[in-house]
Design a protein that fits this description.
The protein is α/β, with parallel strands linked by helices and about 500 residues long. The protein contains 14 helices and 18 strands. α8 packs parallel to α9.
Length: about 500
């Protein structure tokens, strides 16, 4: 019977969205609705590296090779859809500053123009303009039922300061302010009316391309009224246009004394639909209490404000989980994204275990290149400062779990949205457990935050007994939880996570 149930569940999950489904060409944006119901499965990509053609396999995109662009990115959209992704977060596509730039191409976050697209993202052998190519890319996403969020950089390049010094905050000597050690960018003066008008121009541009929303980089560096007005402006044109704030309840101050600091809660009040939370701290958490408290915190916001959060366990600012605690941490992140009340969030390269870790490495290079003809030999994949290779990870076990978990979330999407989140008591401080439940279904998740030592643990669960049946939703291991009256015991390997569907 157990084998039958497992086989049946597998078939149901994997058949759901197994084939590429083309939707109506007349796209109707539904991203806000999807996101506010925690139904987004988001994948972050950098267009210029997403499908770069490293034909000689030297891990560098040489001057005679093709970097990623809007048209060759289309080649990977079927792959993205088949992984269960329904939303792409596209890192900045605006022109990149060259003066005082870092890396071979300059950081994608060093914005040089609000109202244009980066010409480096144009396919060289096409007669279409770069805007037409971007529209085609987004249209092809929509055909596959994939929404598109475009990144809005928080700061400007030095190049923009040269042409428009009035846009920037200046010190007593008249020089623009550098936030933290981000030496390639400068802080905007958000009190300047023209800066607000430039942001409106950006909104106009991305909406004209057909995008479904905006992710605001370091959204805390804009005042409340700035965002309130800009979001209202966008929503008057498209009420489903979604705004995601890069902000965290763990952030307590601005990157610079010269910049405003608007807290995450004020950003949500200003109109943002969601924020990052503090899940990126998972790598540091040692007890179940830390994870459970974070979820409870976000649940309170969801229940009171109807605003939500993304599973920011890994982002483009974070070291690859592979380099922290190997594939087990990656798999834990995958199933937390699938089962917690949040929008799933991943970065390009994550599903195959890429060892991305740029960590500003090229800032320490002996020479900083600002010309596309030079290439800094950097092994990291998700690199904001260079033309780099496309993902090259080879961990199939991560990929298989990634796809399965995403298909699981898709299959149970409506149920998960209505399920209660119930923390469960365990016999170990380092083991977390929770249930997602409604009158028909109970899904139990148990995870070991100790990545060095396995654990035998008891989990209290009301209603179970010696006759309780279950399905192992990960489907890849032999586990044998022992159910008793009101509890069960199970064994977890170091960094292990178990996902069970309770029958009856």
């Amino acid at each position: 019977m157990k084998k039958f149930l497992i086989g049946l569940l597998t078939a149901l999950i994997l058949s759901n969205c197994a084939n590429a489904q083309m939707v109506d060409s007349k796209w109707h944006n539904d991203l806000r609705t999807l996101f506010l119901q925690n139904k987004s499965i988001i994948y972050a990509i950098n267009i210029r590296t997403f499908n770069a053609k490293d034909t000689n396999k030297n891990e560098i995109i040489d001057s005679d090779e093709e970097s990623g662009n809007f048209l060759n990115a289309i080649e990977r959209l079927d792959e993205i859809q088949n992984m269960g992704i329904n939303t792409l977060h596209v890192l900045p596509i605006t022109p990149v500053g060259k003066l005082k730039a870092l890396g071979t191409a300059g950081s994608v976050y060093a914005l040089a123009d609000f109202g244009r697209l980066n010409p480096q993202l144009k396919a060289p052998d096409s007669t279409l303009s770069v805007n037409e190519q971007a529209k085609k890319f987004i249209s092809e996403c929509h055909k596959r039922n994939i929404r598109v969020i475009i990144d809005l950089p928080s700061c400007g390049a030095y190049d923009l300061f040269i042409t428009h010094p009035e846009y920037f905050v200046k010190d007593t000597s008249g020089q623009p302010i550098i936030p933290l050690d981000w030496t390639d960018i400068r802080i905007f003066n958000t009190n300047e009316e023209d800066v607000y008008l430039q942001h409106k121009e950006f909104v106009d541009m991305v909406m004209s391309l057909g995008a479904d929303g905006i992710r605001a980089d370091v959204a805390t560096m804009r005042p409340y009224s700035f965002w309130e007005n800009l979001i209202k402006y966008a929503r008057n044109r498209d009420n489903e246009f979604m705004f995601l704030a890069e902000a965290s309840n763990a952030w307590t101050e601005a990157p610079s004394q010269y910049a405003p600091f608007t807290t995450y809660d004020k950003l949500l009040q200003a109109g943002f639909d969601g924020y990052y939370g503090d899940f990126f701290n998972l790598k540091n958490w040692k007890t179940s209490k830390e994870l459970i408290n974070s979820v409870k915190f976000n649940q309170k916001i969801y229940n009171t404000q109807k605003k939500t959060v993304i599973g920011s366990f890994t982002t483009h600012d974070e070291t690859s989980p592979i380099l922290i605690n190997g594939s087990e941490l990656s798999k834990m992140m995958i199933w937390l994204n699938a089962t917690l009340p949040l929008n799933s969030y991943f970065v390009d390269g994550f599903p195959t275990g890429d060892d991305y870790d740029y960590s500003w490495a090229n800032k320490k290079a002996s020479q900083t290149y600002t010309d596309d003809e030079y290439y800094f030999n950097h092994k990291g994949k998700f690199d904001l400062f260079n033309f780099s290779r496309r993902p090259g990870g080879t961990d199939k076990s991560i990929y298989d779990e990634f796809v399965l978990a995403n298909k699981f979330k898709q299959y149970y999407m409506d149920e998960l949205n209505s399920m209660k989140f119930v923390p469960l008591k365990t016999s170990s401080k380092s083991v977390f457990a929770y249930a997602r439940s409604n009158k028909d279904t109970i899904i139990v998740v148990v995870g070991n935050l100790d990545f060095k030592t396995g654990q035998k643990v008891t989990v209290k669960l009301h209603g179970v007994n010696q006759k309780t049946k279950y399905i192992d939703l990960r489907l890849n291991r032999h586990i044998s939880p022992n159910f008793q009256q009101g509890k069960f015991t199970t064994e977890l390997n170091a960094g292990d996570i178990q996902v069970l569907k309770i029958k009856g």
